[in-house]
Amino acid sequence: MKIYDLIKILGIISINLLTITFVFGFFKINIKNRLLIHKILGIITLIVALVHAGLVIYINYFK
């Protein structure tokens, strides 16, 4: 697997996680601990997006 494939996969995962996080935060779904799930998904989304952005910056500016 090349680094460019990893960047694409992380980008797709971060967009999907962002959409799921939005759904859990915006809509009033009757799930126990909905806001806790929203918070955890937000943190995971932030981590994945930062890794994705870090790889993009590293490839474009430092390699």
Write up what this structure looks like.
The chain has 63 residues and is mainly α. It has one domain (3-62). The chain is 84% helix and 0% strand. The chain contains two helices and no strands. The longest helix has 29 residues, at 34-62. It starts with a helix and ends with a helix. The relative contact order is 0.17. The model has no long low-confidence stretch (mean pLDDT 93).
Write a short abstract of this structure.
By secondary structure, this protein is mostly helical. Helix content is 84%, strand content 0%. The chain has helices at 3-26, 34-62.
**What's the rounded overall pLDDT mean?**
93
Strand content: under 5%
Order of helices and strands: HH
Distance between the termini: 18 Å
* Low-confidence spans: none
Biggest sheet architecture = none
What's the oligomerization state? single chain
Structural class given helices, strands, pairing? mainly alpha
Provide the gyration radius in Å. Answer: 14 Å
Shape, principal axes of CA atoms: elongated
Q: What percent of residues adopt helix (DSSP H or I)?
A: over 70%
Helix count equals 2
Number of domains: 1
Number of strands: 0
